[in-house]
Specification:
The chain has a single domain, classed as NE0471 N-terminal domain-like (2-Layer Sandwich). By secondary structure, it is mainly beta. The longest helix is centred in the middle third of the chain and has 5 residues. It is built from two helices and six strands, in the order βββαβββα.
């Protein structure tokens, strides 16, 4: 079993959804994922959107939706144009 060094927050959770997108809390910060930039979440069931898991150091996985995203892509979606359709 591995433990994170003290002071590093490894939890991840969706803390809210509104008509424009969702709020993800990860690494002690909140990140807004707009449906414009992340369209897969817009029509997804609410329960599936809230079911997110930490994946590696800076990745996140929504198993019910088969979506995985990296923190860098969330912070800078303009650098990573969408490749898949929704």
């Amino acid at each position: 079993m591995k433990f994170s060094p003290h002071g590093i927050n490894t939890s991840v959770k969706v803390v809210g959804i509104n008509p424009l997108g969702l709020w993800l809390f990860a690494g002690g910060e909140e990140h807004f994922l707009s449906f414009k930039e992340f369209p897969w979440f817009e029509s997804a069931p609410v329960k599936a959107v809230f079911n997110v898991e930490k994946q590696g150091r800076s990745g996140f996985y929504w198993p019910d939706l088969d979506i995985d995203l990296m923190l860098e892509g969330i912070k800078h979606p303009e650098k990573y144009p969408l490749k898949a359709s929704h």
